[in-house]
Design goal:
Helix content of chain B: 40-55%
Low-confidence stretches of chain B: none
Shape of chain B: globular
Number of domains of chain B: 2
Largest interface: A-B, 26 and 33 residues
Mean pLDDT of chain A: 81
Largest sheet of chain B: 6 strands, mixed
Number of domains of chain A: 5
Radius of gyration of chain A: 51 Å
Mean pLDDT of chain B: 91
CATH topology of the largest domain in chain B: Rossmann fold
Largest sheet of chain A: 6 strands, antiparallel, barrel
Shape of chain A: elongated
CATH superfamily of the largest domain in chain B: P-loop containing nucleotide triphosphate hydrolases
Structural class of chain A: alpha+beta
Strand order of the largest sheet of chain B: 6-7-8-3-9-10
Strand content of chain B: 15-25%
CATH class of the largest domain in chain B: Alpha Beta
Number of helices of chain B: 9
Number of helices of chain A: 24
CATH architecture of the largest domain in chain B: 3-Layer(aba) Sandwich
Strand order of the largest sheet of chain A: 10-13-12-11-14-15
Distance between the termini of chain A: 26 Å
Oligomer: heterodimer
Distance between the termini of chain B: 35 Å
Chain lengths: 715, 242
């Protein structure tokens, strides 16, 4: 077969291949570029020219006009010369462009976008399309400021600012985008977050665990710096929801009736098994009978030796006012009562709580009244003291007056001796009585004793008491009572069965979710983490086989929206170029190469039949066609910049080979040749290249081969 | 001039030539006859290497031609004129171009080639049809163009592969006339494959009768047709007699 080319046709064929590849590459890439350009223009129309707008505001369609007015107001009052426009409305959401004037594109302004656009009516969110910029998603709070400083130190970076959880790095120009992006990725790669997650329900002392793990990781990971950043980020809605669920479960558990089971000797209780008791019903459980109305079914929650705790899952004891102590029987899965297991003590927590609240209310009522009474009592005591003090003073005055009278009588003031004697005796007796006491039988020195009473101290005590009572009265006991009543009224009106079912449902939900429980996060700077090595060591150290270890980055570099769109467009362009390359090569194989293949096949039939079976099997013309197809397609594909997703160059080459081989097999159908004319050419002593140029190609299908041949054709 | 020794050619499992031996002297006209499929056409196709024999030897002027490749083979072919049963004209070329194009491609100046082509066409009586396309000519005329094309290069050996086989009986005569004239007027060695027994009788110096890939009888026409030694010879004898 090679002699066919040796005459000189190899030059024609080589030129054909080169021209095919060149035109194919230009055609494929050109057409793809035209499509790309068209779509690119469309995108620019949709999202504005590069740098024209900085933010797309997503607002509800019905609020669009109001949002536009607000944006207009913003433009007039806060950002003069700002640009704004509206674009597509998709699924009830209008998109409005807003572009800041250059002088307002500062770190302060851009860092406060949320505040700036907060007042836009109907705002559903916004997307920053500031260009040129690099977007880093999900920047960990522990490194935000550090990263911001480091990014701003990169040449070509204007500044960096946070927008929600993301950080945007604003660039001087688009040209530095790739180099800055590479540097940003390098910096981000220095940091890693090592996260330990504990399953739900684990009570973890985060700080203690963090310190413990920190020490371990410091030894295992050769890092420049490791720090505990567990508290840096814990605000996810899901976490909050789960915490609420856990708290709700705990509340329900404490609100549910307490169930304590004392197993009989030889009885082994198992967590999860169900026990029937009489409850508030009239019917005692009977072995073999079914569960009866009024009876209560208890599920065992925990077992310690012969004692267990449980929860009512069927029936209720909400009306019980005292602790019930009843015989408990196992319950079969069929619902029948089985053997006796021991004594079950049921305590109605709701009743106890309601009782406590009611008693508290009573106490508060009493306290309120007591305070009022005490105030009155203090006031009375004070009055009594005043009276007493006044009486004492009057007694002293009386005593003095009597003494003076007595002295006057003794000096003879006109009375007879007998009168004087009588008066003196009376006065002395009175004096004696006064001196002995105001009341008969109180003994001598009563007035002195009264005088010695510390009235002021008593008054001070009364004042203090009044003050304390006043303090008590100042307490808003009514308010407390109202609140306690409110709490009492707010308590869920659930019976034990409802509580039990709710707890089981919450447990099922929590248990079924792969949701983080407690977690510990460590920031590792410039270290290499091998979580497969670390995980078993940390599990051993914490003696917890359920802890999981994850390694995450502190942020992800994302292309900006426009870059993303254009990246997609580029992919589309590359795919179109690939499809065109395949189509083009197929076209040339049919229009041009098929002629050559047909001729080669015919020439081969006139040669000696090869004895070698392998040569017979591997028809050289088919192999040749496959190689031609492979080279043509691979090179057109590469030079046109084609790239079909998930299809590598090897696959393309293989496809080219198959295409070429198929065209050889069906060559005569695509391009029949006039064998008589070729034979005539051979008989006339024409070389193969002359036969091709003068006889075969001129009558072949119009194509590149035909076109190129015209320069060499002599007839 | 031409010597063929033990020539073998097989198409798949079918044996076309089975140790063919032939000798043609310079200026001699050899007519090969025989039933269809006996290997006549294969023989002359092997002579100018349009078919490659599987084994054997072909000597032209004492030189083996089976080893020729490339330029040597082309030179040899230019010295051999070949007239095909189906004319094998280049349909896109005019009559004159059909006759001269191989001369030009062989390096002859166009004017010289044109002159020689016209002479060749004149010999076959088609000079006035030079500007026509082959499709506008009758079968006989097309074959005469084929003869002119073969003659234009002044070959030392002419090979004719059943030149009248695809012509209407009415047109056979004009071709045979041209051939007879050529045999008479030129000293060119000719190997003619034909079924035309009377023509062979007229023009052949020697007739070779072939059957199953070998020459079964060979000799002057008179000897072959008057006293045939083979079955094929006797069949031709009966044909001529009838």
């Amino acid at each position: 077969m090679l002699h066919f080319f040796r005459d000189g046709f190899y030059r024609d064929f080589t030129v054909l291949m080169l021209v095919t590849i060149a035109i194919g590459a230009v055609f494929s890439s050109g057409l793809a570029w035209a499509v790309d350009s068209h779509f690119g223009d469309s995108i620019n129309q949709m999202i504005g020219d590069n740098g024209e707008y900085d933010v797309i505001l997503h607002v509800r369609e019905e609020a669009k006009e109001a949002a536009l007015r607000e944006l207009q107001r913003l433009t007039e009052h806060q950002f003069p010369k700002a640009s704004m426009n509206e674009t597509l409305t998709i699924a009830g959401q209008s998109n409005l462009f807003f572009g800041f004037p250059d002088e307002y594109k500062t770190q302060e302004v851009l860092g406060g976008l949320t505040g700036i656009f907060n007042g836009i009516p109907g705002l559903n969110g916004y997307t920053v399309i500031l260009e040129p910029s690099i977007l880093i998603r999900g920047v960990h709070p522990s490194v935000r400021s550090e990263l911001q400083d480091r990014f701003q130190a990169i040449s070509g970076v204007k500044f960096a600012f946070m927008d929600g959880l993301n950080m945007l790095v604003l660039l001087d120009s688009m040209e530095v985008s790739r180099t800055v992006s590479d540097q940003v990725k390098q910096i981000l790669a220095e940091y890693q977050i090592l996260e330990l997650r504990f399953p739900m329900g684990f009570e973890v002392d985060t700080q203690q665990i963090s310190d413990h793990v920190l020490d371990l990781v410091s030894v295992e990971v050769n890092a420049q710096h490791i720090s505990n950043v567990s508290s840096a980020e814990y605000g996810e809605d899901l976490d909050a929801f789960l915490k609420t669920l856990v708290e709700m479960r705990n509340f329900l558990l404490s609100y549910a009736s307490k169930v304590r089971i004392q197993a009989d000797p030889g009885v082994h209780l198992v967590v999860g098994e169900q026990i029937v008791v009489q409850g508030m019903g009239d019917v005692l459980p009977v072995v073999g009978d079914e569960f009866a109305t009024g009876q209560v079914v208890v599920e065992v929650l925990s077992v310690q030796g012969d004692q267990a705790e449980g929860m009512i899952i069927k029936g209720s004891i909400v009306d019980a006012t005292s602790v019930l102590e009843q015989a408990g029987f196992r319950m079969r899965s069929s619902g029948d009562v089985s053997d006796l297991v021991g004594t079950v003590e049921l305590e109605n927590e709701q009743y106890r709580l309601a009782y406590t609240i009611n008693e508290s209310l009573r106490l508060l009522h009493e306290l309120d009244e007591l305070a009022m009474e005490a105030t009155l009592a203090v006031d009375n005591a004070d009055a009594i003291l005043d009276t007493f003090q006044e009486a004492l003073m009057q007694l002293e005055v009386l005593q003095v007056q009597i003494r003076q009278l007595n002295e006057g009588i003794a000096q003879g003031g006109g009375q007879s001796a007998s009168e004087q004697l009588l008066l003196t005796l009376l006065l002395n007796g009175l004096m004696k009585n006064l001196a002995q006491g105001a009341l008969p039988g109180q003994g001598e020195g009563s007035i002195d004793s009264l005088e010695n009473l510390d009235v002021e101290s008593m008054r001070l005590s009364l004042t203090n008491m009044a003050e304390q009572i006043g303090n008590v009265q100042e307490i808003d006991i009514r308010g407390i009572i109202d609140q306690i009543k409110h709490v009492r009224d707010s308590l869920p009106r659930l019976d034990d069965e409802e509580i039990g079912r709710s707890i089981r449902l919450i447990n099922t939900y929590l248990g079924g979710q792969v949701i983080p429980g407690e977690r510990v996060q460590l920031l590792v700077h410039q270290g290499t983490i091998d979580d497969k090595v670390l995980e078993p060591k940390i599990r051993d150290a914490l003696d917890n086989p359920y802890v999981n270890i994850y390694e995450t980055s502190v942020g992800m570099v994302n292309p900006d929206a426009r870059s993303e769109l254009f990246r997609v467009l580029k992919e589309i362009r590359a795919t179109i170029a690939g499809m065109l390359a395949i189509g083009f090569v197929m076209g040339t194989l049919i229009l041009d190469y098929a002629t050559v293949f047909s001729t080669l096949k015919w020439v081969r039939t006139n040669k000696k039949v090869p004895r070698n079976k392998l040569v017979k099997l591997l028809n050289p013309v088919i192999v040749f066609g496959g190689v031609v197809g492979m080279i043509s397609l691979a090179l057109v594909y590469v030079f046109s910049g084609a790239e079909i997703p998930f299809v590598n160059l090897g696959v393309i080459s293989g496809l080219g080979f198959i295409m070429g081989a198929l065209i050889v097999i069906f060559a005569e159908k695509f391009s029949p040749i006039h064998t008589n004319e070729i034979m005539a050419g051979q008989s006339l002593g024409l070389s193969d290249v002359q036969i091709m140029r003068e006889i075969v190609i001129p009558v072949s299908r119009p194509g590149l081969l035909n076109l190129l041949n015209r320069w060499k054709q002599r007839f | 001039m031409l010597e063929i020794r033990g020539l073998h050619k097989q198409y798949g499992k079918q044996i076309a030539l089975n140790g063919l031996d032939l000798v043609v002297s310079r200026g001699e006209t050899l007519v090969i006859m025989g039933p269809s499929g006996c290997g006549k056409s294969t023989t002359i196709r092997c002579i100018n290497r349009l078919s490659e024999p599987d084994s054997g030897e072909i000597l032209v002027d004492g030189q083996s031609i089976l080893g020729f490749t490339g330029r040597d083979l082309r030179e040899f072919r230019r010295s051999v004129g070949f007239v095909f049963q189906q004319f094998n004209l280049i349909s896109r070329l005019s009559v004159i171009d059909n006759v001269m194009f191989h001369l030009v491609l062989a390096g002859l100046p166009k004017d010289e080639a044109n002159h020689r082509a016209k002479m060749a066409l004149d010999k076959v009586g088609l000079l006035h049809h030079g500007h026509k396309q082959p499709a506008n000519l009758s079968g006989g005329e097309q074959q005469r163009v084929g003869i002119a094309r073969a003659l234009a290069s002044s070959p030392s050996l002419m090979l004719w592969d059943e030149p009248t086989a695809s012509l209407d009986p009415i047109l056979v005569g004009e071709v045979l006339e041209v051939m007879e004239e050529l045999v008479r007027t030129t000293q060119t060695t000719m190997v003619i494959v034909t079924h035309e027994a009377s023509f062979a009788q007229k023009v052949a110096h020697k007739i070779a009768l072939m059957d199953k890939g070998v020459v079964v009888e060979e000799g002057p026409p008179r000897l072959i047709f008057e006293n045939p030694q083979s079955d094929i010879g006797r069949k031709y004898q009966r044909l001529i007699a009838s």
